[in-house]
């Protein structure tokens, strides 16, 4: 009886059928997690770059005096920013822009408009300033993750989205 068990165990250990399937099953989960993470980070960098470029172009409207001469409102500035972001994202309901005039450049205060519970605060400040004024433009975009692979690792808003921020600090040209 012992001899029969030894032969059976040797035969099972030498049998290689199904080894590829087992190895694939063990490696597919980490591989998929890695691929989804790469896609998630890539999309976040893409959206962040699009937001940064849109805020820079919008800040140029203020810096050169075009927004002042056209009597643009905060909604006009926001729609100008959204027109520069690709139509892949819902900018109208997920974006927010602040325009503040600074008295001097000594340590301007900067705080995220997020409450302790993760709710987004949407109190608008809109001061275009005059010629030679220091102006800070901050654009916020609520980005919905594709797969939420890193959900436990990165803090988000209470609605499950991530907050991306782009800012521009400049001195207005004389106008």
Could you walk me through the main structural features you see in this protein, from its secondary elements to its overall organization?
With 175 residues, this protein is α+β, with helices and mostly antiparallel strands. The chain has one domain. 44% of the residues lie in helices and 16% in strands. The chain contains five helices and three strands. The chain has helices spanning 2-14, 19-63, 66-69, 74-84, 91-94; strands at residues 95-102, 134-143, 162-171. Strands 1-2-3 form a three-stranded antiparallel sheet. The mean pLDDT is 83.
Taken from the alpha-carbon principal axes, the silhouette is: rod-shaped
Strand content: 15-25%
Order of helices and strands: HHHHHEEE
Let me know the largest β-sheet. 3 strands, antiparallel
Number of strands: 3
Tell me the helix content. Answer: 40-55%
Report the structural category: alpha+beta
Strand order of the largest sheet: 1-2-3
How many domains?
1
**CA gyration radius, whole angstroms:** 27 Å
């Amino acid at each position: 009886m012992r001899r029969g068990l030894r032969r059976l165990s040797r035969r099972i250990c030498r049998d290689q059928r199904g080894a590829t399937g087992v190895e694939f099953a063990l490696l597919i989960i980490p591989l998929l997690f890695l691929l989804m993470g790469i896609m998630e980070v890539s999309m976040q960098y893409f959206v962040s770059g699009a937001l940064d470029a849109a805020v820079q172009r919008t800040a140029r409207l203020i810096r050169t005096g075009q927004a002042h001469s056209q009597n643009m409102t905060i909604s006009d500035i926001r729609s100008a920013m959204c027109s520069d972001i690709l139509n892949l994202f819902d900018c109208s309901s997920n974006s927010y822009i602040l325009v503040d005039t600074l008295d001097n450049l000594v340590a301007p205060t900067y705080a995220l408009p997020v409450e302790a519970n993760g709710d987004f605060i949407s109190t608008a400040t809109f001061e275009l300033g005059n010629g030679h004024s220091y102006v800070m433009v901050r654009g916020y975009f609520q980005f919905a993750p594709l797969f939420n692979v890193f959900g436990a690792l990165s803090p988000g808003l209470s609605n499950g989205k991530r907050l991306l921020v782009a800012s521009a600090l400049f001195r207005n040209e004389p106008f």
